[in-house]
DNA sequence: GCGTATTAGTTGAAAATGTAACTAACAACC
DNA sequence: GGTTGTTAGTTACATTTTCAACTAATACGC
């Protein structure tokens, strides 16, 4: 009849990926949303600064694969929450270095613990060794693999 | 220093999942966006009706895990494009059966071919057997597994 | 140095999403 | 048969995201 009776959504990788990603994101979102009133992009920016240290908005865009307007707004929001400060860079005043404040760092460390616990819980819910496999495959698909 | 130096974003499953999902979705999105000016939710609704046959909005919500307002708007949009028609159900006038029109079906079949090709291409880009593993793991995480 | 191009980042309007309140139809209980 | 509760779906409003235009600073060509 349709000629597509064999093509199921649940085997279409983009769909599967989305369902899984949405499910986990939504769940973890609760943590930073409730605790700190953060949006996903804010959490990502916070994480990048906390994990990889001081950097410019552009560098965050590149590393995180986020659009510059999203980052710009997240930075403004985090600044308003006093989680980060900008400092002009001598030599090139177009961009500024972003760094976490003390409370920004505290929030980062707190959320990191939650994230680690969440991640561990997910991994524990999978059969032995599957998490590793999944991780490898996802890195490839995300374009983060070393190939 | 931070105590979290070992916790890398690239091993945090929700993040990885998101990166991979976004990447693939964005790429495939081009297809239905350019060809038919459809949004992701519209494509999903179209797909459900094409693949599983006539059903109500509620059934689509449940099967696709979409919120009813999203579905409602997607249905309106698809109706405007003349890709589907509603027919009142005798006996219960609260819900109506949704069915693809001829051109709706044609769009579905066309996009299905594209989707299958896209999926095949992704799978081919992965090492032997990895796609299967990935699929299994994702189904579990997405909560679609039979466990 | 001066005009042009590029780059970092911001802003504003339009599109999309999420939340909650709403309408309409049915069900159930008495 | 009327009151109350539930279900399907829509609408209205606030929040987010996206897109395009913009500013400001630097780099380049000559």
From TrEMBL, chains A, B:
Query: Which Gene Ontology BP annotations are present?
Result: response to stress
The record ties this protein, via InterPro entries, to: HTH_MarR-typ, MarR/SlyA-like, WH-like_DNA-bd_sf, WH_DNA-bd_sf
- Known Pfam families for this protein? MarR_2
**What GO terms are given for molecular function?**
DNA-binding transcription factor activity
Q: What is the top-level taxon of the source organism?
A: Bacteria
Which part of the chain is the HTH marR-type domain? 10-143
Q: What is this protein called?
A: MarR family transcriptional regulator
Classification lineage? Bacteria, Pseudomonadati, Pseudomonadota, Alphaproteobacteria, Rhodobacterales
